[in-house]
Amino acid sequence: xxxxxxxxxxxxxxxxxxxxxxxxxxxxxxxxxxxxxxxxxxxxxxxxxxxxxxxxxxxxxxxxxxxxxxxxxxxxxxxxxxxxxxxxxxxxxxxxxxxxxxxxxxxxxxxxxxxxxxxxxxxxxxxxxxxxxxxxxxxxxxxxxxxxxxxxxxxxxxxxxxxxxxxxxxxxxxxxxxxxxxxxxxxxxxxxxxxxxxxxxxxxxxxxxxxxxxxxxxxxxxxxxxxxxxxxxxxxxxxxxxxxxxxxxxxxxxxxxxxxxxxxxxxxxxxxxxxxxxxxxxxxxxxxxxxxxxx
Length: 295
Description:
This protein is mostly helical. The protein contains twelve helices and no strands. It is globular and about 60 Å long. The N and C termini lie far apart (65 Å).
């Protein structure tokens, strides 16, 4: 029950990135998403440290102290949120009338934004969750697995410091393509052998690739809805994206056991290649249309 409630909290917390967009000028919205996610760096450092320091607070109940320390953290978050000046909903945002959702889904930008974030998250969750299992099966130590995952988490969030600027300069779809390329390179390295350096370098590429696909997808999503539609569209987006992440995590152990490490990685490649092909096809066609004379 406690884990379920924490999961609800994390679900609401994911909406912080949209709240940041709403209080940020249009030209800086990609950077706003990036900076919110950059907070993951601090959580990656502080979280394990707090858990280690507090896990034995309660004698005979390992990690009970870690859960108790969360109470203090959540109180701190609550107090910080009181300092945030979020704007009141505008008249247009309170309008009950919206377009039919199927009409929103028909937009190409909506499809691309959801697919980028969902595929990026699913690929990341699947490979990341399977990595410690594969390392254990090939006699790598627990400390080696922990080191690889720690660097993966850093790679997931550290690029957030500049991802927004890259999107602003090169465009969201180009950054999606870059993220897909990094994920495919990760898969290629993982299929070459089960060496420590292979796991380490591949998981770093996987983290950066996830960052590019997720932030670019989130930024593009904000261009697909009207003010009165934001709650519905953001909610459906997060169900699809984090549902994909959960599916990747749940399938990791099954696929690792049934088909092995190399095949598990190859399962991820086709949907990424299809998305990349679609983006390149649209980019090429758009270039042709722009070059055609206007009659």
